[in-house]
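TICKET: design request
STATUS: open
ATTACHED STRUCTURE:
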């Protein structure tokens, strides 16, 4: 059985870091599976960073003895610090790494162009997929379409399958189909077009 003091130390120095790591993985394509037991050191490091940023507030509230004067507010503060603030930090860090203006020399959080292109919200494309056998498949990637993300193999579901002419022109959507699924091991390259097909 866990002793009370050890449980408190675990909550304070491990939980915030784990929350930061797990939520960051939700904002970005998650990496390949890692055993949680091997992430303890990372979790402790992220927890310490969490407390370093919020240290002035911790120092202030302890100095004015907030726990004695306003116990519920004191509990809420530490609840926020341990469970909510790590999520805010993860979201902010993801935004910084994703912004061309803010990330500077930092690498982009998306590890593959596939994830970068298809993770952009409200983006729709007319897609022309050239398969390894030379066949060209056309389709529309819209709100009902779906693409896989890392660490899963790249697969693409297009909600509309289009007929593509020999000269590469989109002619019309095929009738009586519910779309098409394309597997990555069949793809040579993909062309994406925005806007209306003329």
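STATUS: resolved
RESOLUTION: sequence designed for all positions
ATTACHED SEQUENCE:
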């Amino acid at each position: 059985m866990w002793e009370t003091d050890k449980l408190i130390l675990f909550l304070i120095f491990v939980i915030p870091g784990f929350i930061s790591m797990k939520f960051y993985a939700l904002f970005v394509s998650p990496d390949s599976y890692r055993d949680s037991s091997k992430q303890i050191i990372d979790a402790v490091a992220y927890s310490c960073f969490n407390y370093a940023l919020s240290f002035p507030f911790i120092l202030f509230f302890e100095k004015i003895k907030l726990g004695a004067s306003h116990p519920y507010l004191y509990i809420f503060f530490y609840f926020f610090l341990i469970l909510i603030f790590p999520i805010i930090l993860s979201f902010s860090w993801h935004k910084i790494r994703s912004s061309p203006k803010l990330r500077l020399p930092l690498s982009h959080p998306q590890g593959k162009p596939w994830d970068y292109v298809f993770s952009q919200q409200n983006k729709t494309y007319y897609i022309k997929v050239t398969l390894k056998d030379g066949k060209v498949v056309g389709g529309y990637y819209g709100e009902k379409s779906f693409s896989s993300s890392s660490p899963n193999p790249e697969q693409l579901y297009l909600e509309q399958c289009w007929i593509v002419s020999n000269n590469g022109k989109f002619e019309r959507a095929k009738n009586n189909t519910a779309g098409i699924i394309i597997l990555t091991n069949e793809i040579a390259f993909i062309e994406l077009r925005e806007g209306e097909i003329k």
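CLOSING REMARK: Strands lie at 125-131, 136-141, 146-147, 155-158, 160-164, 170-173, 180-183, 187-193. The mean pLDDT is 80.
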